[in-house]
Amino acid sequence: MGTAAIPTEGKTLFTIEELTSRWSLSRSKIYELLDDNRIAAVKIGSARRVHLNEVLRFEASLT
């Protein structure tokens, strides 16, 4: 799982699409992680966003 695809400088919220690129996972796998509470997200209207701290926490849990 690479992390170089999306720069994090100045960015605090990530879309599901950005995470699919960053983690080389499918949209359905990202939603599965969300539904299983392995990563947390905020809802803005009908859209889900994942905070940078949560992205980094999840990545650290994989090592």
Describe the fold and architecture.
By secondary structure, this protein is of the alpha+beta class. It has one domain (16-61). Helix content is 43%, strand content 16%. It has a 3-stranded antiparallel β-sheet with strand order 1-3-2. Strand 2 (42-44) and strand 3 (47-51) form a beta hairpin. The chain is globular, with a radius of gyration of 11 Å. The protein starts with 12 loop residues before the first strand and ends with a helix. The model has no long low-confidence stretch (mean pLDDT 89).
In short:
With 63 residues, the protein is an alpha+beta fold. Helix content is 43%, strand content 16%.
| Head-to-tail CA distance between termini | 10 Å
CA radius of gyration is: 11 Å
How do the SSEs run, as a string of H and E? Answer: EHHEEH
Number of domains: 1
Helix count equals 3
Number of strands: 3
- Spans of at least 5 consecutive residues whose pLDDT stays below 50 are none
Give the averaged pLDDT, no decimals. Answer: 89
Strand order within the widest sheet? 1-3-2
**Largest sheet report:** 3 strands, antiparallel
